[in-house]
Every structure is written in C-alpha cells, then in structure tokens.
Amino acid sequence: MATMKVHGNPFSMAAMRVTAVLYEKDLDFQFINIDMKNGEHKKEPFISLNPFGQVPAFEDGDLKLFESRAITKYIADAYAEKGTELIIKNDPKKMAIIGLWLEVEAHQYEQPAAKLARELHFMPLFFGIPSNPKVVEENEAKLSVVLGIYEKRLSESKYLGGECFTLADLHHLPTLHFLMMTPAKKLFELLPRVSAWVADISARPAWLKVIAMLKN
Amino acid sequence: MVVKVYGPRTAACPQRVLACLLEKGVDFEIVHVDLDHGEQKQPHFLLKQPFGQVPVVEDGDFRLFESRAIIRYYAAKHAESGPNLLGTTLEERAMVDQWLEVEAHNFNDLCFTLMLQLVILPKMGQPGDLALAHSSEQKLEKVLDVYDKRLSESAYLAGDTFTLADLSHLPGIDHLIEDAKMGHLITQRTNVNAWWQKIASRPAWIKLKNLIH
User: Fold this and answer.
1) Tens digit of pLDDT for each residue in A29-49?
2) In sequence order, which residues have a C-beta less than 8 Å from that of residue B99 and are 6 or more positions away?
3) Which among B73, B77, B113 is the top mutation candidate for probing chain A, defined by the most A β-carbons within 10 Å of its own β-carbon?
4) CA B181, CA B187: separation in Å to the nearest integer?
5) Sheet holding B28-31, edge to edge
6) Residue in A69, A93, A108 closest to B51 by CB
7) pLDDT digits over B58-88, tens only?
C-alpha cells in the first residue's frame, strides 16, 4: 500500500489539522513541503491536487483530496480501527452532536481565531507587518463571545463533542497553538473550563509530534 | 413525530435543511423565527441555539443546530430512502465531504457578503459597501471558474449523482440570482449553468420554492 501523502507547509494551520489526525492514528505518511512563499501552491503540479490553490492536499493511493476538514473526516473514518477513535460510527445521534461542534469550529470559532493568529503572530513574525489594533479588537470581541459559549458547553460535557476527545476538539488545535503565543491568550485564561480543555488537548502526545515538525 | 425546523422559510440556512428533508421525504413543521425583530437573540431562543442563529431542529427530544450538521444527520438517518445524498463507498463520501467544505469555505462567505451588501443592508435602510461587494463578486467569479472546470469532468460536484454537496448550494445561488441579481455568474459559465438548471429543477427544490411563496 502506497504511503499517504500530505502536501503542505508545516506552519499551515490547515495542514497541521491533517498531520494531527495522522499522528493520533499512528499512521505513516510522507509530508511534501510546498514552497508557499514562492507561490508553489498556485501553480502546477499543486493546482492539479487542489484547484483552489490552497494547502493542504492529500493522497491515499488513488484517492486525492483537499479541504483539511474533509481529509480529517476521511482518515478518521477509513482508519477508524487504528489509534485514537476520533468519530463515533455506531451512534448517529452522538455523531450528529460531534458534527454540530465540528460546524461550530468551522463557522463560529475559526474566523476570529485564525484572523487573530495571523494579525498577532504570523504577520509580525513572518512578514514584519505590525498588528492592526482595530482588527485585533474586533476579532477578540467575536472570539470572546464564542469562548463564553464553549465555557458553558464544557460545563455539560468533558469535551466539545461529548465525553471523549474527537475531531471536534482536534480541529481547534492549530489556531490554539499560535493564539497561546500572543496576548489573545488572555481570552482563554479568563475561562476556567476552556483553559483546562486547552491544556488537556494541547498536551496530547500526537499534538506534540505536530509541533515538533515546526522546529525542523 | 414531526421534525420541527425553527427559522424563517425565506432564510438560506433553514432552506438548506428544508431542501434535505424534502429530498428524503421527512415530514416537518416550520416554526417561524422573526429575525427582523431579533427573536433569534432573545433568551428563549438562545437556550436552543446559543449563537443566536437559525435554523434549529427539534426531533422529539433531540435538538440539533448548524444546518450542515443537520443535513448530514438526516441524510445518514434516512440513507435507505430517497436519493443517496452522501455517497456509498469511503471514497464517494470523502468527495461529498470535500465539496461540502468547498461550499462552506470558498463559496458561502463570498455569497453571504454579496447578499449582505447588496440586499440585506439596503433593505434595513443602510448603505451597502459597493466596493466590498465588487471585490467579493470578482473572487466569486474565480471560485465559479473552478466549479465550471470541475463540472466539465463530472455531472455533479462530488461525482455522477446529486448529493449534499450540490444541495448545500441551492439556497445561496437562488438568493444570488433572485435577490442580488447576480444570475450572470451562473449563466455565463456553461457547465455551472447546466448543473444549476438540473439541480434547481429537482421536485424537492420546486416544492420548497412553492412553500416559500
């Protein structure tokens, strides 16, 4: 069986979502670095893997996929028996609740979180562009509201999707990692259950392997 | 027990759910939510949906929100009846997921920005940001160019048959054409136009359009 391939950049938050799942499931894969600085993701051969010119792209034998959240779902399903169970296959209602919080991450959390990570971490550190205070203020306010709802959810349930760690929690890890290196971490520190949840999921051995890729 | 769908029948996200329920032949009752007067932000509604958005679905004592989570649940629950909206093999399901993500991340925000600036804000008596609308339109053109190429290779987005990936686009494109007068985005692209004609003429969608009017 051909080794699975992830085409991306170690610092791409979307690519980190995919490598996190591969490590959780103890699956072998090859990481093919895409030189985004020189626009490699907007040209062939990458464009044939993702016509929208975005990382990551993924290959499992003949199957080619893009969109990180579709890739993670595929891996979680195709390799359900291996490593950590990241979805629930035999209980549609429990899986629907995981699905709900997957959508919440994608539609409520991701936008303000990713914007803050870019504004407070990537732009200053990688491009020397100072943060725009207006953008920061606006997105911190939005993220605060979302985290308030997470605080309540985590009083009812150990993890976002239910009693076990699932994709619904994992999808947050990449943005969380960078946000915790910025002043925006104060938003999380204000909330005890959210703080405990962040500490818990960030300490997972599989996640530490993803972060180790950043050091190389 | 009839599934309750909370939300105005004119709003895109409830329509996404209604389209799926109609495709699957699931009986439902629409419970109107007055968005114009902020009913969705009232305490009684926030108990159902803490982000203060529509739709919410109540099926007996099972409650769900986020339209794309709701359609996945019902498409799986009724996999055996009506059209197969999810795909059968792992690979088919992955393709449906991929194009559902494309709708959510590459199409939806641009579509919503156009609707907000060109239709919703003016309706509320506020000026829309025309420059933002124009740049969103240009970005959406590029996205639909990718769709056009995809639909030259494949009858529907995820493969040979109609799935949730196509269904998820119905309300947004309908609003773009009818309300934002952006029909040219569709008609100017041969394959996108052919695809739109096919999916918009499905009996379930026509039933929904009749329910709305």
Assistant:
1) 999 999 999 999 999 999 999
2) B157, B158, B163, B165, B166
3) B73
4) 12
5) B28-31, B3-6, B56-59, B62-65
6) A108
7) 999 999 999 999 999 999 999 999 999 999 9
Q: Do A100 and B66 touch (CB under 8 A)?
A: yes
B191 contact A CB<8A: no
DSSP string for A33-95: E--GGGTGGGSTTHHHH-TT--S-EEEETTEEEESHHHHHHHHHHHTTTSSS--S-SS-HHHH
Helix (H, G, I), strand (E, B) or coil at A7: strand
Distance of residue A103 Cα from the nearest chain B Cα, in angstroms: 6
What ipTM was assigned to the predicted interfaces of this complex?
0.95
Q: Find out whether B60 and B2 touch, Cβ atoms under 8 Å.
A: no
How far, in Å, CA of B204 to CA of A171, rounded?
34
What does the alpha-carbon distance between residue B74 and residue A88 come to, in Å, rounded to a whole number?
16
Provide φ and ψ at A32, rounded to 5°: -105, 115
Dihedral sign for Cα atoms in the order A16, A82, A158, B54: positive
